[in-house]
Amino acid sequence: MVPGGSLCLNLSNDIFLAGSPARSTYLERLTIALEDLGLSLMDRLAWENPSKPPGPTYWACKERVQLVHTWEPVLWMTNDPTRCLADNRRVLRPHSVATSKLIARGGEARSTSYGDGAHRLRPGSFGSETAGTIPRNILRIPHEASSIAPVRRAALDSGLPAHGALMPRDLARFLIEFLTPVDGMVADLFSGWFTTATQAEETGRRWICTEQMAQYVALGAWRLQDAPGFHSSFDLTCA
To answer: Is 138 inside any structural domain?
Structure first.
């Protein structure tokens, strides 16, 4: 990675100890192992997926000792936190109606404090016009089938296997725009559906993607066949 580059790992939150409803601490051990290799933890982003099927099925639905999960962790690490290329100005969200009205009124009219004085409100607080709202680190992004449905049909028509793990394009797009400057390089070593490549292409980033199975690469080539300058040695009709 370039100095200040980021590494993001979307990992399962549902790894349990054998025969037990207790979760594995592999995420914590992996984080420490990556730190030992010289990376620094920037955040544990929570990807909340409201369309995620109920689970863990056995421990939540049958034994009733767990809650239904709706989120997965995304570990965000960098090789140089002081030079990190992330910039939240690239992913600002529109102000809510309430915030827009508050800005229009000139901000807060009251004076108060919270948390034993750690946070203070003064008259005029939040009254300055800004470009948007900084996103929170809980990303509520459902799976969407519209972008994958044509690829599934292409796989079915060609007799190719469909990858079992989906990444919503909005999640890939958010991470790319937040962490990578325009014309920067995005790499995905486990490309699957090649969603990362499509979003890097659409947002003006360079990209390199790898995948162990040639059948998945063929489907990725099909998704990217209309990209400017794209050339593929795969013939999807006879893959």
So the answer is: no
